[in-house]
Write a structure and sequence with these properties.
2 domains; 21 strands; Jelly Rolls; 221 residues; mainly beta; nine-stranded antiparallel β-sheet
């Protein structure tokens, strides 16, 4: 399967208006944003766990990172409430579940295969001081990518040169970009050479962003 698989094109998806599709596991549904492959895939997806649902134990050969958007995600390593960012690098294994139900934004097979750094962090706890209406946290940085969380005050401008491509998910509030309104759940992907420039709406905004990685995009080995 290929979905939004041309990384030289700009893609904007309103994930909140995208249809849920059942996964192979009962009680787990997906909104696919981009994908190369079948069940083993380089994929960016919104995943919804019904209360009490779970996956079997599995290993992430290509790595997994995710943000908990709603509810509490759980596995044998801990409980992760909304607002948590988690990186499970290649070779890590877990048995995911959610007792009360949750929704996550998850990316698979997008790691440096030599990466072994596993961690989780509450994104809001990592932000630095406010500068020009923007408070940021660098969640992860390596030779291939930079992962960032930002909180924008009303009317604040956010710019990133985004070398190597960029993608962004609006977590809260509204952002304006080139005459378009990006609301909560909007997922934007810009190819290498395109900078990200957005301005927060009257209630401010929160966003997650990854830059540099798209020049390395490929199907799972």
């Amino acid at each position: 399967m290929e979905l939004n698989a041309n990384f030289d094109e700009t893609v904007l998806v309103d994930s909140e208006r995208t249809e849920w599709v059942a996964s192979p596991m009962a009680g787990v549904d997906r909104r696919m944003l981009d994908r190369i492959g079948k069940e083993i895939a380089r994929a960016t997806t919104i995943v919804r766990y019904a209360p009490g649902s779970r996956f079997s134990e599995h290993t992430h050969s290509g790595g997994e990172e995710f943000i908990v958007l709603e509810g509490v995600f759980q596995d044998e390593h801990g409980d992760y409430p909304a607002g948590t960012y988690v990186r499970n690098p290649p070779t890590t294994a877990h048995t995911p579940r959610s007792d009360q139900g949750c929704t996550i934004f998850v990316k698979l097979w997008q790691f440096d295969l030599a990466d072994r750094t596993q961690f989780s962090t509450v994104m809001a706890d990592a932000v630095g001081p406010v500068e020009a209406g923007v408070a940021q946290a660098v969640l992860h940085r390596d030779r291939r990518e930079v992962v960032t969380y930002a909180q924008l005050d009303a009317g604040a401008a956010f710019h990133d040169a985004a070398k190597g491509g960029v993608e962004m998910l609006v977590l809260e509030g509204v952002l304006n970009r080139e005459g378009e309104t990006l609301q909560k759940g909007a997922w934007l992907r810009l190819p290498s050479g395109h900078a990200l420039d957005v301005v927060a709406g009257p209630e401010g905004a929160k966003l997650w962003m990854k830059a540099g990685h798209l020049v390395h995009a490929r199907a799972p080995a």
